[in-house]
Amino acid sequence: MTTDTDNRGAKGDILLEMKDVEIDGFSDERWHKIVKGVDLTLRRGEVMGLIGESGAGKSTLGKAAMGYAQPGCMIKSGTIMFDGIDLMALSETEKRKLWGSRIAYVAQSAAASFNPAHRLIDQTVEATIDHGINGETEAKTDAVELYGSLQLPDPENIGTRYPHQVSGGQLQRIMTAMAMSPRPDLIIFDEPTTALDVTTQVEVLVAMRDIVEKFNTAAIYITHDLAVVAQMADFIKVLRYGDEVEEGETRQMLSEPKEDYTKTLWSVRALHKDESPSEDIALSIKNVDAAYGNTVKVLHDVSINIPRGRTVSVVGESGSGKSTTARVITGLLPPMKGSIEFNGQPLPAALKDRNKDQLRRIQMIYQMADTAMNPKQTVAEIIGRPLEFYHDLRGRKRDGRVAQLLEMIELDDSFMDRLPGELSGGQKQRICIARALAADPEVIICDEVTSALDQIVQEGILKLLLRLQKELNITYLFITHDIAVVTAISDEIVVMFQGQVVEQGLKSQILSPPFPDYTQLLLSSVPEMDPDWLDKLVDERS
Amino acid sequence: MHPVLYTVLQRLGLGLLTLFIVSIIIFSSIALLPGDFGQQVLGQAALPETVEAFRRELGLDKPAWLRYIDWIAAVLQGDLGTSFSGRASSGADASRSVWELVAPRLSNTLFLAGFTALIAVPLSLFLGITAALKRNSIYDRSVNAVTLTTISFPEFFLAYLLIVVLAGIFPTLSNVTPDMSLGDRILKIALPALTMTLVIVAHMMRMTRAALINLLASPYIEMAQLKGASRAKVIIKHALPNAWAPIATVIAFNLAYLVVGVVVVEVVFVYPGIGQLMVDSVSSRDIPVAQACALIFAATYILLNLMADVIGIVTNPRLLHPR
Amino acid sequence: MTEEPQSYSAAGEVGQVRLRRSYGERVWIALKKAPISAWFGMIVIAIYAFVAIFGPFLAPYGEAEVFAKADEPWTMFGGNPAHFFGTDQIGRDVLTRLIYGARNTIGIALVTTLLSFLIGGTLGLVAAINRSWLDQFLSRGVDVLMSIPSLIFALMLLSIFGSSIPSLVMIIAVLDSTRVFRLTRSVAANVVVMDYVEAARLRGEGIGWVMRKEILPNIMPPLVAEFGLRFSFVFLTIASLSFLGLGIQPPTADWGSMVRDGSRFIQFVAYDWTLALPSLLPAGAVALLTVAVNFVVDWFLHKTSGLRDDH
Lengths: 542, 323, 311
Description:
The structure holds 3 protein chains of 3 kinds.
Chain A: E1 14-27, E2 30-43, E3 47-51, H1 58-64, E4 73-82, E5 85-86, H2 92-98, E6 103-106, H3 110-113, H4 120-130, H5 136-149, H6 155-158, H7 168-180, E7 186-190, H8 198-214, E8 218-223, H9 226-232, E9 235-240, E10 243-249, H10 250-255, H11 260-264, E11 281-292, E12 296-307, E13 311-315, H12 322-330, E14 337-342, E15 345-346, H13 356-361, E16 362-365, H14 369-372, H15 379-391, H16 395-408, H17 425-438, E17 443-447, H18 455-472, E18 475-480, H19 483-489, E19 492-497, E20 500-506, H20 507-510, H21 517-525, H22 533-541
Helix pairs in contact in A: 4-5, 4-7, 7-8, 15-16, 15-17, 16-17, 17-18
Chain B: H1 3-31, H2 37-42, H3 48-58, H4 64-76, H5 98-133, H6 138-152, H7 155-166, H8 182-188, H9 190-216, H10 219-226, H11 231-239, H12 244-268, H13 274-283, H14 287-314, H15 317-320
Chain C: H1 23-32, H2 36-58, H3 94-130, H4 133-146, H5 150-161, H6 165-192, H7 195-203, H8 207-243, H9 255-262, H10 277-304
Helix pairs in contact in C: 2-3, 2-10, 3-4, 3-6, 3-8, 4-6, 5-6, 6-8, 7-8, 8-9, 8-10, 9-10
């Protein structure tokens, strides 16, 4: 084989072969294995999906495919052959000749990965010119064409802008153009759409898939979202804790996964709750307008009714005002206009005007369990504080109740003296649930409680929440952008867009036609576990 | 208005406001003087009429805001008032104008500080940048250990160490006079300049290194590497355009530090600069001179920081290329 | 539910979790891995503390005891063995003055730093939680105070209030508290926005509880490091002011003034370097302590900041 770019192999030849790759990372004062001996073979023109939960080592493995170990990591052993070249044997300088010419990388955060000081087009063609693949004029003309085929608006001129002047979805597409500009043999996509809203994600996915197909480029697509990878990849490799679980052709993996672990990745979509209507309203907000700092109005005439013992999900993309609604209910952001009623009684607008009992009845669970618990307090202190504060339980009584609560959330009293840092993500979220339960609340506001969690853990948390609802008749206000979660647990759904309620109703009503425009867009943009979903969607929309 | 211009003007306005408040603080110091101050300056034997005349000259019979306006108007015209020293209890007045005292010393100090900056700035930028690029090499570690040690040293300790080592080569007293040639002057200030260079380089090198390492940790730098850009190119094309603001801040901060550090060094080497003058005026409680010196130091300090901010603003791509 | 994942249980769930280690274990691991510089620093600080506390028992003579022979040189170069480091210009034993100097200089610097943390830390915390006009007022005030170099400001204030130890302590503490204020405010502001603080407020906790239990424990590491840095800065400032003749006044023994007293030989150092010793010894004593503190702080910052500078 030769490194000459003109002499590319035929489709189906092996392009990348990794054997028994082990990668170590350093954290918490010790080295530990991130990738534990994984094999990977990729042929020309193929797209491999690398999927796994956080800590699976997929991103580390993806970068290793370039012969690159990020700071704090080292490739300990194994072989990485790229088109017959042993990457492990190359010097940094030699590897740089391949990077940006034959192997390209698309990062997760486009906003941070573009240099703020240079125009987008200069960054797009930089590697192409540097590696002598194309002259400046040709490279730029080509870049404009790439922008066009990636469906960017005004492809002629968008390149003259600076990174902060275009939107996140556009940046992500420009980064794809940047990767494609030198016409590499291989592109590594590292969670390229994770930071985007669903409606934006669809556009980016379509653009990326089409362009990879058009130039017949091989790609590794890293993500934690199976439905996304199903649209992009020819075959899928599942990783867990740095080991390979299984690998297979996409359709086959989706229809009949072999390993139990792979099956669990689907499971949340199998979770289902039958809706039950109710007219007994526990909490309602009426005609609320709210603004930050009296200037930027973020809620416009929002009214939501939350029936007792039921789950109301508020869905919307970032900026839709769903989290602000939660802040209004908790009293952190007193509304400019409108009122909140709790059990038929008006609730004081500001937090400081509410009494202890009113505060006790409405509890909150946060998205990031990491930041929702004081890292310097033990589990017993975290759960015990509301017991002391609201119910005046102290000493042994308090500890007894803490143990009971721990059992309710399927943990045990061995956790009492642990610090949050010594818990896993799912355990942390459970402790937060226990803290909310300790107050004996009537309503719990759940703000994206599962979106930072891995699929299998999500499912456990959702099941727990449903069980608690059944046992304790708790009312949930569930704020989320994840339609799968909404279908799983809601009774009613509220759709929000740009600070307004688009519609509210029973789950079955909202999720079946006829749809208002925005609901239609939102629902159709949620990737489905069907490899043909994206094609169908493109057909429908065009 | 262009956002860059707007932000710069805003910052300049803020700088002026700060100067104004600082001048008020410095001015109020005279108002805080104990009542028998005239007696102290003029001596116990002074007649009540002489003390009264002195109080009137200071304007202590007028309301404070009026005195401030008089004072600041005079200062703006270059009149810093009259020194307290040289006054006798008899009422005879041999005192000199503050400006007369300050001017020659100010130029001496500027000479010393300027000379030091000329050596220290390029040297520390070089050391800081190379240390950041060769992070964790033996070079980096040793430069780091040495500078961590020198920043902990008081200026006078460094000065005496240098005196012990270099006393045979350079003069230990820096008593320059106006009629000296440039060569002699430089020889005379070699030791104080070297002392300050050591202190400033240590600070500045560490700050440059930290600022650059921070910058090099940005995702867009990793992206540039993954595009196969050479090390030199990553630095020059991707890091440098974003480095002006932090580097300007580092330089301004350290020049300001230099302005302060000069006080102790001037005293050690008996250098006739403004720092020495301020110390003398404080020990003899010659308030007008002390005020003038403080005002000069503070103004320099504020101006330097203002300059760094302005450089940061005009090199910020987000402000240069608004949406 | 169609499929029950067999292996899943919440308690058995693993992930990227910190190892369970007790506080003692973590301290021990940290100490074992401490670099030589940090060990050196800790040992030096311990020795200084010992000398400062037990000074009167260690010193051969009284603090201001005057002996007949002034300006005696160092023993090693043929001086009087009764005065190991010789005597100063009015005949006081230099070793004794050095030992008492430790007590006075370190003691005053420590009191000043504590005071400056009390002022700056409290106001910084309040500003971080309050975030309204009070925060604006304090922050702008601190900006103005910090726009005057602190040594110059101190000199000016000393010219007004005179150089007594209480005014020295007050002036430096107030000026230095501006820096403590800024740091406390900025680290506390990062903690105030955390969800657990919001959770405590939603629970209805009072501001005192939130400050004490939720914020303070989480901003301790940077504050402790800052305490070290501020201490060495205050210590240097006091030594410098004393050196300038405007700090601690005689007959109280202190290192800065001792440097100043020794400086009268400066012209002759070219002929006999030992004449630099009367200045170099106390100056070195100052330098050694600040170096030691900086070494320890550097290591501590490295440990706690999470900045993985090592790889």
